[in-house]
Structures are given as C-alpha cells and as structure tokens.
What we know:
Elements: H1 19-32, E1 41-43, H2 45-52, H3 56-68, E2 72-75, E3 81-84, H4 89-102, H5 107-128, H6 131-146, H7 152-168, H8 172-189, H9 195-213, H10 217-247
Antiparallel strand pairs: 1-3, 2-3
Amino acid sequence: MSREKAETPVWKLGRAESTAMRVERQIKEALLDGHFAPGDFLGSENDLATQFGVSRLPIREALGRLQALGVVDIRTGAGGGARIAQGNPALFSEALAIQLKLVGMSAEEIFDAQYTIEVAVAGLAAQAATAEDIEALEVALENAQALVGTQHEFTQASMAFRNAVAHASHNHFLEAMMQAIVHVLYRSLTPYTTETVAKGVIKRHRELLNAIRARNDDAARQVVSQNLNVLREKYLAARDAAAKAATKR
Length: 249
C-alpha cells in the first residue's frame, strides 16, 4: 500500500544562521513534521538550490551534514540526488554513548539507566518475541557460552545477547537506548569479567531466555532485575577495591 505524500513544505530562510545551517534545520524539521518518510526523494543539489533560492554550495554543505547524521542518502550520477534515509538506530546509539562519556556520566547513573530500560525490554520481549527472535536469542546465547574463559570476546557476546533481547521487544526506542548503554558498559565491565563471572552471566541469560520462550513477562523482568542488582554490586565493589589498591601504591 503506497503512502499518501504529505504536503510539500515551504522553505523559509531567515538571517540568524548560516545558509547551510538554515537548510539543514528546515529539512530536519520537515521530516519531523511528517512531510517526508524513508525513501522519499528530496531532490538534487540543483533542485534544492532552486527551492531554497540559494547557491549549490550551502545545499552541498547541508546535505553533507545530514548524510553524516544518517538523515539522507546521497547518490551521484544520472538520476542521483538526496533521499530520506532508512532508519538506523545504531547511528544514534553510538553517538549517544559517546556523548554520555563526554558529559562524564558515572557508573552509578549508567546502572540506573540500564536497570530501567533492560527490565522493561525483558518484559516486552516476553510478550512480543517472534519465533525468529527466539532463534536469534538461542544463537546469541550459544555464541556467548562458547566464549566463556575469554574476556573481551565473552563480554561482547554477552552484550550481543542483551541487544538481541532488546530487538525482540520490538520497541525501536528502547532498542536504541539499550544499544547505547551496551556501548558504554562493554568497556566498563570487561576488566571484571572473569570465567566465574561469565558462567554466572550465562546461567542468568539462559533463565531469561526460558522466561521469554514461556511468554512469562513477570519472570523475565524478575530475572533481569536480580541479574542487574548482582552485576551492579559486584562491579562497584571491584571498582572501589581497585581504586583503593591504586592509592596504596
């Protein structure tokens, strides 16, 4: 079923910003206002320059920034131009993870956010997971189990299982937020991921998978809640012990 195209936006250029920034802002606002959907043709540089009443240079600059943000796809050559991109939460989640590090978010804040999001994701996954989602979770868990005894590789595989649970929730926003938290947590947790810790993680992941498979959202949330409380306690204790040992050197 084809989507009914929204009314073409009216571009307006003020004077408070550079021309390229005004073009960029208005295209983003038009997208948020529903004038465009993924795959819609935005125009060539010449088309947009005519529509905005400006030269091609600021159009090219604006499109370059929009492409870097994942808002548009640009093709060159005959029939080329800018189209509204398909959604890619991974771009948002990685950028958010970097910003969280830049603002100095503490480990305690990350764990609070993880608890809020991951518990909700687990409950939704138990309600919404498809047969394909269950299969993906089983594969992710097998991959993680095979890597017990390694540190970096196991932590990455464990985080991949968490992302698979988020995907199974079929909530795009929560999935993107979970991916951002995973980007941050991976580097924080890796130094403390011993073989004993990894085996405990596998056990709790399996309990979560069983709860999701059984469509038991209460059990899924409970498993994650208990898991995160243990994870938080062990990580913070290990971090504080390492910091105390460092001050005695």
